[in-house]
């Protein structure tokens, strides 16, 4: 294959890469996205699909709010694929006094910081909205308008609309070298040599390796495998997405009646061979916690369990910003909570690539923050 010239080349076909391709193509930019496997193949396509502002690190909240503006108008961006986003309400309950103290403290801290999207509610409010809850709570944190989505459908939506705006998307295209030659990047891949003025590294758990190819920062990125369980169909009893304060749980019920249970419980991942494990004892602890909230779950049968490969940063905050060399940009390290952020990240990266000011500060996510 001959040399393929592009103005902008994106590496990685998850939600961050596809959203970036969409926003750039929508603005008339010449953009190509390459993915080493398939669009949405890894973390962006196999996560729990939580679309939440709830529980974010305070440094991440402005980005999450900006992303939510896009989610709330998603039909205008990706059309029919937006039907796979299901807004409801997101609730983290306290199951003991220790959780109540943590939750109340967070509500106070956010209020002092000027954020009003998370509110503290007492048990009577929770029981009224969730009459099938099997246990009293000690109150909880609630966000109206958060919800869940079918992750691979949303990723595919951004990819398809990007293509309608002129973006090229090439799958099964692994990068083998990435070098700067004068004012251009040369990217050798399994499908030939590409050349681009700008490269955007959205390669997820593989992104630190891409950065090394470009002689960029050494990122302390580690790969793990978040795990999920889906049950058989049950009567509809849960109209929200739920978590538990100070515990790793994400619980929702699909329109089919199936429960999806996850929330950060993770196993081993081997990015070099595209493999991730499932550890049943860890998943059983999530099942037990979910069953405490709703006894119906204790009677449900597990239909399937799975995991995906995700990249984690030591501070659980992503890397978003410019690399060391001109024309190199990064957007990775979302540590199992990047799905909701995806549209906001795509918009921000498009701004950076085009030399524009993103609508929120990216200072907390700067790529050089781990450099001694």
Descriptive notes:
Strand 9 and strand 10 form a beta hairpin. The strands form three sheets. Strands 1, 2, 7, 8, 9, 10, 19 and 20 form an eight-stranded mixed sheet that branches. With 372 residues, the protein is an alpha+beta fold. Helices cover 28% and strands 30% of the residues. The mean pLDDT is 95. The protein has a domain at 4-48 and 153-219 and 315-365: FAD/NAD(P)-binding domain, CATH 3.50.50.60.
Radius of gyration: 21 Å
**CATH architect. name of the domain at 4-48 and 153-219 and 315-365:** 3-Layer(bba) Sandwich
Return the CATH class of the domain at 4-48 and 153-219 and 315-365: Alpha Beta
Q: Residue share in helices?
A: 25-40%
Distance between the termini: 42 Å
Number of helices: 11
Q: How many β strands by DSSP? A: 20
CATH topology of the domain at 4-48 and 153-219 and 315-365: FAD/NAD(P)-binding domain
Assess the beta-strand content as a share of residues. Answer: 25-35%
Kindly name the structural category. alpha+beta
* CATH superfamily heading of the domain at 4-48 and 153-219 and 315-365: FAD/NAD(P)-binding domain
The unreliable regions are none
User: Given the C-alpha coordinates, what overall shape results?
Assistant: globular
**Overall pLDDT score:** 95
Largest sheet: 8 strands, mixed
């Amino acid at each position: 294959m001959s040399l393929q010239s592009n103005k902008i080349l994106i590496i990685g076909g998850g939600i961050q890469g596809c959203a970036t391709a969409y926003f750039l193509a929508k603005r008339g930019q010449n953009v190509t996205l390459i993915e080493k496997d398939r669009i949405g193949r890894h973390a962006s396509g196999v996560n729990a699909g939580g679309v939440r502002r709830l529980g974010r690190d305070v440094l991440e909240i402005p980005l999450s709010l900006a992303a939510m503006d896009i989610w709330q108008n998603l039909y205008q961006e990706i059309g029919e694929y937006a039907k796979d986003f299901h807004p409801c309400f997101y609730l983290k309950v306290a199951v003991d006094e220790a959780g109540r103290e943590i939750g109340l403290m967070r509500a106070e801290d956010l209020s002092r910081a000027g954020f009003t999207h998370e509110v503290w509610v007492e048990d009577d409010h929770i029981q009224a909205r969730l009459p099938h809850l099997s246990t009293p709570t000690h109150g909880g944190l609630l966000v109206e308008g958060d919800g869940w989505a079918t992750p691979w459908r949303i990723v595919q939506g951004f990819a398809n609309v990007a293509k309608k705006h002129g973006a090229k998307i090439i799958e099964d295209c692994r990068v083998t070298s990435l070098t700067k030659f004068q004012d251009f990047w040369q990217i050798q891949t399994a499908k030939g040599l590409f050349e681009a003025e700008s490269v955007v590294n959205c390669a997820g758990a593989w992104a630190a390796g891409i950065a090394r190819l470009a002689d960029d920062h050494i990122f302390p990125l580690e790969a793990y495998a978040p795990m999920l369980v889906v049950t058989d169909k049950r009567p509809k009893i849960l109209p929200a997405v739920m978590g538990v304060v100070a515990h790793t749980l994400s619980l929702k019920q699909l329109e089919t009646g199936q429960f999806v249970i996850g929330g950060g419980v993770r196993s081993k991942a081997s990015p070099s061979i595209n493999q991730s494990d499932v550890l049943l004892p860890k998943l059983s602890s999530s099942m037990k916690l979910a069953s405490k909230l709703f006894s119906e779950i204790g009677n449900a049968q597990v239909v399937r369990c799975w995991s995906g490969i995700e990249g984690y940063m030591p501070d659980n905050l992503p890397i978003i910003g410019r690399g060391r060399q001109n024309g190199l940009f990064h957007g990775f390290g979302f540590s199992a909570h990047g799905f909701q952020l995806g549209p906001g990240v795509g918009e921000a990266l498009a701004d950076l690539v085009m030399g524009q000011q993103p609508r929120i500060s990216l200072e907390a996510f700067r790529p050089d923050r781990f450099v001694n």
